[in-house]
Design a protein that fits this description.
This protein has one domain: Gcn5-related N-acetyltransferase (GNAT) (Aminopeptidase, 3-Layer(aba) Sandwich). Helix content is about 25%, strand content about 30%. The longest helix has 15 residues, at about 95-110. The two termini are about 15 Å apart. The chain is globular and about 40 Å long. With about 160 residues, the chain is of the alpha+beta class. It holds the Pfam family Acetyltransf_1. InterPro entries: Acyl_CoA_acyltransferase, GNAT_dom, Sper_AcTfrase_N.
């Protein structure tokens, strides 16, 4: 099923806010409302966010720091995948991977050479998901101790796998 990114508006806001990961995953990504609160609290991170749709229904949420001046360890960039939330009932269907592919293609068209993200180093964390998509560790950690990974975006390439 094709995935698309849509702006959040009055018509879909409640459905997007209702999206939730499994309880054990909340320590890794939080909630959509928490992400929107972060976006409001950190405007200098130039937050860009969209609902992830499949089959005409919201299945997730994605938020980036959009072309920012990096200020490590707290502001990573210039292109940083800040949040990726796929609803618990829609996980393991490929929507997260498709959403990351769309984001990678979008930022690459904007001139990004790489897409960065970070994750908590835990056995049940998202490290394997990002590795399967082609992200590789940078050797750095963010201000919260999360591992920073990068997806190289080379001109003319179709990333990620």
């Amino acid at each position: 099923m094709d995935v698309m990114l849509r702006e959040i508006d009055d018509e879909n806001r409640d459905a997007v806010l209702a999206l939730s990961v499994a309880p054990g995953q909340r320590r890794f990504v939080g909630t959509v409302q928490g992400a929107l609160d972060d976006a409001a609290a950190y405007p200098h991170a130039n937050p860009w966010y969209r609902a992830v749709y499949a089959g005409g229904e919201p299945v997730g949420f994605v938020m980036l720091s959009w072309d920012v001046e990096p200020q490590p360890p707290d502001l990573i960039g210039p292109w940083f995948l800040w949040k990726l939330i796929i609803d618990e009932s829609r996980q393991r269907l490929g929507y997260g991977a498709q959403a990351v592919r769309l984001v990678a293609e979008l930022v690459q068209r904007e001139g990004a050479a790489e897409l960065l993200t970070s994750y908590v180093d835990a056995d049940d964390g998202p490290a394997g998901f990002y590795a399967r998509l082609g992200f590789e560790p940078t050797g750095e950690v963010d201000g919260d101790g999360e591992i920073i990974v990068r997806l190289p975006l080379t001109p003319g390439s179709r990333q990620p796998r």
